[in-house]
Amino acid sequence: MDDLRVDLLDPAGLERAVTGCEAVVHVAALYSYDADPRLIERVNVDGTRNLLDACERKGVKRIVFTSTAGTCGPVPGRPATETDAPPSWELAVPYKRTKLEAEQLALAAEAVVVNPTTPVGDGDWKPTPTGRMIAGVACGQIRGFVATTGLNLVDVRDVARGHAVALERGRPGERYLLGGVNLPLAELFAAIADLAGHSRPRLRVPYAVALAAGRAGIVNADEVRLARLPMYFSSAKAENLLGYEAGPVEPALARAVTEAVGKDGKGGA
């Protein structure tokens, strides 16, 4: 089949795209904390519904849906698992809420759901919010960090392989976290700065200060809401049932930093 680009909001086009397919992997979403909430809803929820409906009408036998680890947590005091759910205050964030709604549609349709944590590596051209964060630290534009939070980082190539094993071995109606290593934000930012040859960000920002800055419009309020707890996750289920494996994240972070600062090392993000 030739390459075919179809809008998620085009039901007829989606039907044409999935005709004759035995399996569909739905990776598309609007990953943004500042886009119009109505557009996020249309793409992430209505678009997912359109694709699932098209697959049902055309008899697609297997679907893998790319969700986010954020639908599984975080939870206080430990890494979250597939049996957990996000705290209620985070559902005020349109991206988070719509990804959860879309995931629920996918699970009801007996799709296999994968929940990547924070993928890093090269190729984040747009960039995503994750790519902007890495570029901000790598180029010396971010000099502080919210001390309350951390992230689970994973090589984007491991996430791709996780999709492949989920397509092959995942159980319909189940979800699988695809993650790597849990790192406090201070350690992550230090690693990025070291790779880029910049001074490490050292300003520890209390969550209350970050929250006030978000309310004042100085920083993105939705991103601050998501920084209240460490975003730590466990991939034990995918490892045990799918054979998923995540390698070290340092090479992927190095690729991301190299791309962010540009080949001449002067910045280019």
Q: Which spans of ≥5 residues are poorly predicted at pLDDT below 50?
A: 263-269
Structure annotation, total helices: 10
Strand-pairing-aware structural class: alpha/beta
Distance between the termini: 35 Å
Bulk shape: globular
Strand content: 5-15%
Main beta-sheet annotation: 4 strands, parallel
- Can you count the beta strands? 9
Characterization of the model:
The chain is α/β, with parallel strands linked by helices and 269 residues long. The protein is built from 10 helices and 9 strands. It has helices spanning 11-18, 37-57, 94-108, 129-138, 156-169, 185-196, 207-215, 221-225, 236-242, 250-261, and strands spanning 23-26, 62-66, 112-116, 118-120, 144-146, 150-155, 175-178, 181-184, 203-205. Helix 1 (11-18) crosses helix 2 and helix 6 crosses helix 10.
